[in-house]
Design a protein that fits this description.
Number of domains: 3
Radius of gyration: 30 Å
CATH topology of the largest domain: Multidrug efflux transporter AcrB transmembrane fold
Helix content: 40-55%
Order of helices and strands: HHHEHEEHEEEEHEEEHEHHHHH
Strand content: 15-25%
Shape: elongated
Number of helices: 12
Distance between the termini: 21 Å
CATH architecture of the largest domain: Up-down Bundle
Number of strands: 11
CATH class of the largest domain: Mainly Alpha
Strand order of the largest sheet: 2-3-1-11
Structural class: alpha+beta
Length: 432
């Protein structure tokens, strides 16, 4: 019963390996997708970063003249987050978005991997709306214009407030219950809800102007203090224009105006050379590990080498299936994880050798070796996982690529070392 169960697990591992190998090798997978008439969504090409496939390098000037000096850093960081969400929406591979400062001047740098013709991307970034709310004060018109009653005409004066598009959490289109005309409902984040509540409380009975790209789109009268951070924008919308506006708000309204200062196309020739060198280094390193394991552990080392091949195929399939963008730093993390994947096997084999020296039968020694080695394997991998997570959440984009690749590699290696290697040994190991 146990032997038959082990054989089934072995066949499942073999099937997973073959499927992963076909999925990893793009020409074969592309042919399979076409012949099987699979949906285009399962095509899953490899995603490569700017340093490997080239792309565009954009620099934007940030206009912070209307922002108080103490809030400029916060606004610039909010703008960076908005643009990063924005470019992610139209499928740019691992966009690098960061701010730079020279004196009082702030710049936004956007790197778009794989985008050679960036006109559409520039258009979408530049057209992200600048939304802000302004209070209204009426002053006598400078001219001698008068109303029908003979009183001097008043003209509105719009006073900017702290409530801008950076506080927008989400937006959606809804139809008015009475007129059935489309309107845009906006929900603010926690900080925006507080600002909006205070703003409406101070302006009950007075208009509150809503500007989009410095164009007045609505000036509703505040009837009462509004809590909960929700607002409505109505006007001469069609459902198409309202939906377009909602898409832009959900992508993120700009907290400050930006102007494209420079644009540069980056070639991938250096990246291709570095990629070839990295791949060759990975192949040579893997072969060296194979030879060492076979030389030192003989048959056990041969099974470890087979398990390592399965590990490489499965890990690469995970990267491709989840569209994880591969950069040079990510490839370095992947190659490092290949070497670390053998550590678990070494601990297991040493434990097995100790059991065999005690006179334990090989089949029993294999089970005991895995059982005794597991606590050490678990603890060492947990420390690496913790380190990878810290690097991912508290460092820059390029280090994040390395940390993510290492994290995925360690998680898959725990599966391959424990399950794949043990399955091989259970199937092929004999007591004699």
């Amino acid at each position: 019963m146990i032997k038959s169960r082990t054989t089934i697990v072995f066949l499942i591992v073999l099937a997973l390996f073959l499927a992963a190998a076909v999925f990893d090798y793009q020409p074969v997978w592309q042919t399979a997708v076409q012949k099987l008439n699979l949906p285009s969504a399962v095509f899953r090409p490899w995603r490569l970063g700017l340093d490997l496939v080239g792309g565009s390098y954009l620099i934007y000037e940030i206009d912070l003249n209307e922002v108080q000096s103490g809030e400029r850093e916060s606004v610039a960081n909010g703008l960076r987050d908005v643009i990063e969400r924005r470019v992610n929406l139209f499928g740019v591979s691992e966009p690098q978005v960061f701010t730079s400062r020279t004196g009082d001047n702030y710049r936004l740098v956007v790197e778009l991997a794989g985008i050679k013709d960036v006109n559409q991307a520039i258009k979408q970034i530049g057209e992200t709306p600048l939304l802000d709310f302004r209070t209204v004060a009426f002053e006598a018109a400078s001219s001698t214009a008068k109303t029908d009653s003979g009183t001097p005409a008043l003209e509105p004066k719009f006073i900017p407030t702290a409530l801008t598009g950076r506080y927008v959490a989400r937006a959606q289109v809804e139809a008015d219950n009475i007129t059935r005309k489309p309107q845009v409902n906006i929900e603010f984040n926690k900080d925006g809800a507080v600002l909006f509540e205070s703003l409406t409380e101070q302006n009950v009975g007075r208009p509150l102007a809503i500007f989009l790209d410095n164009v007045l789109i609505e000036m509703p009268i505040v009837r009462e203090k509004i809590s909960g951070g929700k607002a409505q924008i109505s006007g001469s919308f069609t459902f198409e224009t309202a939906q377009e506006l909602v898409q832009r708000f959900n992508a993120g309204a700009l907290p400050a105006p930006i102007t494209l200062a420079s644009q540069q196309i980056i070639g991938a020739s250096l990246g291709e050379t570095a990629l070839q060198k990295a791949l060759w280094a990975g192949v040579l390193g893997t072969v060296a590990v194979f030879l060492f394991m076979v030389f030192y552990y003989r048959l056990f080392g041969f099974f470890a080498a087979l398990a390592l091949i399965v590990y490489i195929a499965l890990t690469a399939a995970v990267f491709k299936a989840f569209s994880i963008t591969m950069t040079l730093s990510g490839i370095a993390g992947f190659i490092l994880s290949i070497g670390m994947a053998v550590d678990a096997n070494i601990l297991i084999f040493e434990r097995i050798k100790e059991e065999v020296k005690k006179g334990v039968a090989k089949a029993a020694a294999v089970e005991e070796g895995f059982r005794r080695a597991w606590p050490s394997i678990r603890d060492s991998n947990i420390t690496t996982i913790i380190t990878s997570m810290i690097l991912y959440y508290f460092t820059g984009s390029f280090v994040k690529g390395f940390a993510l690749a290492l994290l995925v590699g360690v998680l898959v290696s725990m599966f391959s070392a424990i399950n794949v290697t043990r399955t091989f040994l259970r199937v092929f190991t004999r007591n004699k």
